[in-house]
Amino acid sequence: MGFHGVELRFVNGSDALWEIPELMPGSLPATRRQVADRGLEISGVGVRAHFHFIDAAKRKEQIDEAKRDIDIAGALGSTGARLWGDKVQPGADRESTMKWISEAIWTLAEYGRPMKVNMRLETHGDFTSSADTLKLLRDCGCHGAAVTWDPANVLAGSGERPAAGAAALGPYIEHVHFKDEKLLGGGKRDITLLGQGDIPLAEIVASLKKLNYQHFVSLEWEKKNFPNAPGPEVAFPDFISWWKAHGA
Length: 248
Known about the structure:
The protein has helices at 28-37, 56-75, 94-112, 130-140, 151-158, 162-169, 201-210, 232-247; strands spanning 5-8, 41-46, 80-83, 118-122, 145-149, 173-178, 180-185, 188-192, 216-219. The chain is an alpha/beta fold. The protein has one domain (5-247): Divalent-metal-dependent TIM barrel enzymes (TIM Barrel, Alpha-Beta Barrel), CATH 3.20.20.150. The strands form 2 sheets. It has a 7-stranded parallel sheet with strand order 1-2-3-4-5-6-9. Strands 7-8 form a two-stranded antiparallel sheet. The longest helix has 20 residues, at 56-75. The relative contact order is 0.11. The model has no long low-confidence stretch (mean pLDDT 96).
């Protein structure tokens, strides 16, 4: 079809990846071979954990869960695990929440380092802007911390244009979520095929080219969240056609 990699997020409707038979420790070597035999890479593994909880015990539980996803990434030869921050919880404040997130990134980056798996903080939740993302990474003060840049999230969450975000984040960007959406106001969005929404896709592509970006661009097709969207049999070929025409 033209894809070079697969980003793992949900498999058979589950984001508990460690419960998938093909992703259990005894099966991972065979799964890695099967992926490679198809000329593909695992471009990244989505960690479902959140690090915004007030309760320290809950945050530790989430960190322990994240390590299971990082183990999968390492065993599959992936160089990155996507993390969320994510949202300031009732009773918490923004400063404390950012501190907890940075601490979690440091812990997980140290854990992933021997496996050569970087932690890629997604621009997501209450911390989408480049300023917030950079603060989280710099406060972490660790090696192996990078960014999964989702410019649609950023535009919807903070109003920051792709050109400004890419310029600010620069070499931190190791993975890109690419999608188009109708921005409906009030935080509401609706996914569309590429070129049919409000996301400035050409600006995103131009910004990546200006950075000489050399990593994966991943179509994020969230049909699980938008059940009325076209299926992958429509969206995937559409992405390849669009990218060949406008992104390559």
